[in-house]
Specification:
Blueprint: E1 13-25, H1 31-35, E2 38-49, H2 72-85, H3 91-102, E3 108-117, E4 127-134
């Protein structure tokens, strides 16, 4: 099965994202990584049910209604909370926890999470993992 497009008017899907969030995280399997936190960058893309893409009455067009949207603030707060919880040996495990948190909202259809360790190699900008998870 094809993953949903991240923004798609016909499929009534909206793209909600968090870009280049950087936190000090305790992550890695090497001794030096266990001693001190390191900078980690997070990018999160969510495919969200989009009521606004469905035909609407003229009266509802252009009105702000927070209850119709997935707010990115709780996603950012969840990443901060998860990172602060503990040391993660693997970036994959951290990405899984973030995707799980994003999929708690029943309107989120699909989550793509990228976790990048920034200071691993002097001559490499970043190393990491990107995962995609979808609602069952």
């Amino acid at each position: 099965m094809e993953p949903p497009r991240i923004a798609d008017a016909i499929g009534a899907v909206r793209h909600v994202f968090v870009r280049d969030m950087t936190l000090e995280a305790r992550i890695g399997v090497h001794a030096a990584e266990k001693r001190a936190p390191q900078p980690v960058r997070f990018n999160i893309d969510l495919a969200v049910e989009d009521e606004g893409a469905r035909p609407l009455s003229h009266a509802s067009v252009g009105r702000d209604n927070l209850s119709r949207v997935v707010d990115y603030e709780p996603i950012v707060a969840a990443v901060r909370r998860i990172v602060a919880e503990r040391h993660f040996a693997l970036a994959e495990t951290l990405a899984e926890r973030i995707a799980e948190a994003a999929l708690i909202d029943p309107r989120v259809i699909f989550a793509r999470v990228r976790v990048e360790k920034l200071d691993v190699f002097r001559d490499v900008a970043a190393v990491g993992v990107e995962i995609e998870r979808r609602r069952a």
